[in-house]
Design brief:
Elements (H helix, E strand, L loop, with lengths): L11 H12 L19 H8 L7 E3 L20 E6 L1 H6 L12 E5 L7 E3 L16 H4 E2 L2 E2 L12 E8 H5 L10 E2 L1 H11 L10 E5 L2 H10 L14 E2 L4 H7 L3 E4 L17 H10 L2 E4 L4 H10 L3 E5 L10 E3 L3 E3 L1
Parallel strand pairs: 7-9, 8-10, 9-11, 11-12
Antiparallel strand pairs: 1-15, 2-3, 4-12, 4-14, 5-6, 7-13, 13-15
Amino acid sequence: MPLQDELDRTDPEGAIAAAAKRCSNWGRWGADDVLGTLNFLTEDKRVEGARLVRRGVSFSLSQAFDTDGPQKGWRRRTNPVHTMTDTGTDAERGNQGFPHGIGGADDVIAMPLQCSTQWDGLGHIFDHGNAWNGRRAGDVVTSEGDLVTGIQTAAAHITGRGVLLDVGRAIGTDGELPDGFAITAEHLEATIAAQGGSARVGRGDLLCVRTGRLTRARRDIAEGRGWGDYAGGASPGLSFTTADWLHGSEIAGIATDTWGFEVRPNEFDVAFQPLHQVAIPNIGLFLGEMWDLDALAADCAADGVWDFFLTAAPLPVTGAVGSPVNPIAVK
């Protein structure tokens, strides 16, 4: 496995191609596969996850979906717009047209599917025109959506054993990693060693990695500085060199408390999300972003237990390449 300081930062094309070849899962589950690494999340893994519920305490790992979110319009990503179509005022005035005094409220929301806590689907990123499992990108995602690996194909699968690696607490200062900090496989393994046996990571697990970046963003908001560049700017995150670790660990999915999952700025002189380019279309790995891991992390640190039952089903939006999610961790 190449170390971070061994990367040829001037050759992203070569490094991405080499990692894609080493880490490819194309054909592993057959030519028609649409689940990628979710194939590792078997019925036995779901039973294992369910058995981790002992106290019954639950944590939502989702940020809010509202107009005060972090989006600033990059790639036409905006914050949700929530509009009421029927209200209590309408009911009081009797203008809803219902009989015998019944009234109601209804609402609608308009938002990009990846504006807050979300999963990246397998149709979200391509590598040299190839989608997951070696399919042509244009045959997979058209103006009608993802015709093959739409996020609805994952709707029943993402529930099982969750593991939190609080790298911010184990490696960082005051529970946070600085922007631009590249988390290597060595950092992940050091965090597992520090947290103990319940932090082991293996086949079929749903891995959550806390950097502390959301904690810092919330402090900035509280002190009047707003979200800043939380969505799209500099951030700690996974190093490109973790591609082999992600592939070899055979995890089902990974989520972080950051906008982009991988370190920002990216590690090459000229690059844009190179780890995405390996992880999604070549490994077939589901990536979660902007998850809120702070309350869960505090509880895990208090009781020393870092694994839990996790359910994180995407909305089955037919043909979508990503989805909002409200992940629930139960301990």
